[in-house]
Design brief:
Length: 432
């Protein structure tokens, strides 16, 4: 289904390859996408003039709001051709529906297969999925399809419930798992409390989703360090989204998520929509390749990243994506400091006495941002927790937000409502 593109192809070979795929994608959109057909007509875009990657700049961006307001107009196939319906997580706005055909599911399996291969996964490995496959979630299904295509074994446990995870590890002896990295600390805590020799368990590798493990220089951040200090397992970061139907996964050298050029075209843009200079941070904008049901053209992800284009130590020459700096609409200006939430989470995820937390961002009367961190404690402590946390923040990010101690079950009800697939860490009350 996909023309093979060698991982050590030259930049020119990759560019020529993608430009041929782009022509096919544009023709498909003009013929079958009500949304893009209307856009091309409205903006007098002649797709025959879009021959090079740089020519994409002639085309307007697609936004999350477009997907929300005109969702059905993105569908390019008859409904009887749809095999699977999924939605985005909706952590930042209303969820958006995506429809996948048989070809899209095959593409999804191929994407995850080559992504897992990047992380050194091979036939014969046994993978424990510590992620949900229900609740209209694409990622859990994608992992299942990719591992299956690779020929490895799968144990579908689902998210949470440390006791069940350890019972499964004991019974079936998986050597790897897909997991949200902060949950690894909960696995360690449960093992320590219940006499489980986790360091000598069968698990040797975690493919991590949803949270950063590294700083921009690719060194482990506080979360990554706290895991490795306790448990010397292999950690591989990934980055993906429903809209992209594509994953960027680290290799064994941990120097960014590798790009798969046969699946997606990537651009980095500044606040004005212009391409950023090489090596600088910008908003990731993507054009999907080979998607049949709901392909996207120049979709603004809202994620701020940096591209690394030098060859990787593993021998691959494809571009690599840095750890996510933050989301564009989550930029916080607090006490004269510019912050993104991952910097705050990195501090909180490394505090042993915290059971859970949630961050509220709001406007103040001066037009600046206020931050309130609501925390739940594992147990009552005999020292000033608020002071200790503020000292940790000042040491790490130079400013300390307001902190409020709340019952852990109260925070859990807010951060993990029944309809949610991912923990809600941010409540943004600012007037947009």
């Amino acid at each position: 289904m996909y023309k093979f593109l060698s991982g050590n192809s030259s930049k020119e070979e990759i560019k020529r390859f993608q430009e041929e795929k782009l022509k096919i994608a544009l023709q498909y959109l003009q013929e079958d996408s009500p949304f893009y057909k209307r856009m091309f007509l409205r903006d007098c875009i002649d797709i025959q003039q879009i021959k090079k990657i740089k020519d994409l700049q002639q085309i307007p961006f697609t936004t999350k709001q477009d997907l929300q307001l005109h969702n059905e107009d993105f569908l390019c196939v008859p409904r009887e051709n749809i095999i699977d319906y999924i939605t985005t997580s909706g952590t930042l706005s209303d969820p958006v529906t995506f429809a996948l055909t048989e070809a899209d599911l095959e593409r999804l399996a191929y994407n995850e297969k080559i992504s897992f291969e990047c992380a050194g996964v091979k036939k014969g490995d046994i993978f424990q999925l510590m992620t949900t496959m229900d609740k209209r979630f694409m990622a859990g299904l994608a992992y299942f399809l990719g591992i299956r295509k690779l020929g490895a074994s799968i144990i579908r446990v689902g998210n949470g419930i440390a006791e069940l995870q350890w019972d499964t590890i004991k019974r079936m002896k998986p050597n790897a798992a897909v997991v949200v990295p902060s949950f690894i600390l909960k696995l360690i805590k449960y093992a320590e409390n219940n006499g489980i020799d986790y360091k000598n368990s069968s698990i040797k590798k975690f493919v991590c989703i949803g949270e950063n493990l590294r700083e921009q220089d690719f060194s482990l951040n506080l979360l990554g360090q706290s895991i490795k200090e306790k448990w010397d397992v292999e950690l591989y970061s990934t980055y993906a989204s429903t809209e992209m139907s594509t994953t960027f996964t680290e290799c064994e050298y941990g120097c960014g998520g590798h790009h798969h050029p046969e699946l997606i075209i990537c651009e980095l843009i500044d606040d004005n929509g212009n391409l950023v200079p090489e090596g600088e941070i910008g908003e990731l904008t993507v054009t999907t390749l080979g998607v049949e049901g709901m392909p996207l053209l120049r979709f603004r992800t809202g994620d701020l990243v940096r591209f690394h284009t030098e060859p990787c130590k593993c021998g691959r020459t494809t571009m690599r994506i840095s750890p996510i700096v933050g989301r564009l609409n989550h930029l916080i200006k607090y006490k004269g400091t510019t912050l993104y939430p991952p910097a705050i989470f990195d501090v909180l995820d490394n505090v042993p006495y915290l059971e859970n937390y949630i961050m509220e961002i709001s406007d103040n009367e001066c037009g600046n941002d206020d931050i309130l961190i609501k925390i739940g404690l594992r147990e009552q402590l005999d020292y000033d927790v608020v002071k200790d946390l503020k000292d940790r923040f000042r040491a790490r990010i130079r400013v300390a937000p307001e902190i409020e101690i709340c019952p852990a079950n109260e925070i859990r009800a807010t951060s993990m409502p029944d309809i949610s697939r991912k923990p809600i860490k941010i409540i943004d009350k600012r007037k947009k």
